[in-house]
Amino acid sequence: MQVHQYDVVIVGAGGAGMRAAIESGQRARTAVLTKLYPTRSHTGAAQGGMCAALANVEEDNWEWHTFDTVKGGDYLVDQDAAEVMAKEAIDAVLDLEKMGLPFNRTPEGKIDQRRFGGHTRDHGKSPVRRSCYAADRTGHMILQTLYQNCVKHGVEFYNEFYVLDLAMTEVDGVRRPAGVVAYELATGEIHLFQAKSVVFATGGVGKVFKTTSNAHTLTGDGMAVAYNRGIPLEDMEFFQFHPTGLAGLGILLSEAARGEGAILRNSDGERFMERYAPTIKDLAPRDIVARSMANEVREGRGCGPNKDYVLLDLTHLEPAHIDAKLPDITEFARTYLGVEPYTEPVPVFPTAHYAMGGIPTNIGAEVLADNDNVIPGLYAAGEVACVSVHGSNRLGTNSLLDINVFGKRAGIAAAEYSKTADFVELPEAAENDTVALLEKMRTSDGTERIGAIRKDLQELMDANVQVFRTDETLREALDEIAKLRERYNNVGIQDRGKRFNLDLLEAVELNFLLELAEVISVAAIHRKESRGGHFREDFPDRDDEGFMHHTMTYLDPDSETDGIKGMRLETKPVIVTRYQPMERKY
Ligand SMILES: Cc1cc2nc3c(=O)[nH]c(=O)nc-3n(C[C@H](O)[C@H](O)[C@H](O)COP(=O)(O)OP(=O)(O)OC[C@H]3O[C@@H](n4cnc5c(N)ncnc54)[C@H](O)[C@@H]3O)c2cc1C
Predict the structure, then answer these.
(1) Residue 565 pLDDT exceeds 90
(2) How far is the CA of 15 from the centre of ligand 1 (A)?
């Protein structure tokens, strides 16, 4: 086993991890550990844009942006965090511009901006152009730009290193990170990275669902590793279903399409969003649009032979405009569905897209041990984290913003912390749990296959924990997950080798997915109201008296919740600064 020592270890090389690394790398000895080659991270798949109230093309200000974020999140947003994000958005975009990001420009040469769902002028009066973009490849440009700047600053990358455990040590009664345990894909070797501070930036967990816009690798590793070391997870019941996935496939067609003027229609050709959100129509927040689409299908106004999707109509847009602003996603429609968006509407249906929940942090990106205490030296940023700037529903373009604002904050804070802190002693044989787990997996004679269990889990979550939920569907999900976990105990892998054993790692990732699916389902059972991305048919209204709080799920050997041994649920107050909850109309 190899042992390494760095001031700061960053886990994940997506937008959040690399934005942190640029800051940390200039201040302290920093290593970035990533299971993917950095530029393959999911941030590179982001399409539509990153918002900031630059007011380059029309009047706008960061306070309107804060309000939209809070209202978009159905008032579960911590408002101090939303203020920080909206205010720092402007510098976040300008930072990227200075690093060399080729944004689309206005004729005068300013960064161009376009419309996106839920972003409005003057508290909901009409849609506003707030999203900065580089065609429909904004994430790709961000990721490349950040990577180039990491290289420029000499950040050290450990590529294809899978972090499978977090080593924690108690010092004077306070638990602190001592380092991380990583598995090197190329050799099968275990590495121990000792660090004064650790930043988690491992992204989301979309792969608990079957129909998803997320990459194969988004298995919630950081969330699961933290949870297994006693760190709570916040608001896991809130998952965003993006309205416009390609029907039957889930591949994303960015909301930028609607930002540029595309319209959703049902089988009657009706622009149905006029009924659900009369003011901003197709540009309502995603939770509302996704639910409206699902409702059209339920009420028999779906399209196609099975009446199970609706149509995204771009045919009234000029082909030249489509080619300039939406080249990639229109190509997706041609490639994957054989549909020509110039002349035919595109079949779409909601697709699992974004985890609003995750590892709880404060606005300094410090990870919370509980409602009142942070874990000194541990930070999280990006989709793995829950600050909470997105509350119960994230607005489009607020994630690329979140990863830049809080990634930067995490990088600075982790580096500054490492300047005054000492190394914490690693627990004895910190790698033991990981080594034992991998050995058991690699040598098991089990007859169950990873792919089969994962498929059953994803289909179960699509059927029971999707846009519409009830107590019955959620409890059924829990029962079935318990059975899948039993099957998982008998899993056997085919590749017994040490080098490039992806089979082995998929087995580990599947375990993360099973654990997190359980957390999502239990948290969803306990939120007996409908808010943002969480819609309970048995409790269709928002209930501010009963549920205006965050959910905190802990792994706790002494507790039992809904028949799940070792799980405890608590609540955390929402931080309200200036916007009292109001009825949410668009
Ligand atoms: C198709 C698509 C389009 C999107 N479009 C937009 C958009 O237009 N605007 C917007 O605001 N948002 C968009 N989003 C959301 C946004 O892109 C993501 O939420 C955001 O990029 C996440 O960034 P991240 O840095 O947190 O994680 P990621 O970019 O997912 O990076 C995660 C990193 O963690 C590493 N990692 C994971 N597990 C481990 C492990 N065990 N050990 C070591 N490393 C690990 C990976 O290697 C990777 O480098 C989109 C998302 C998708 C899926």
Answers:
(1) no
(2) 7
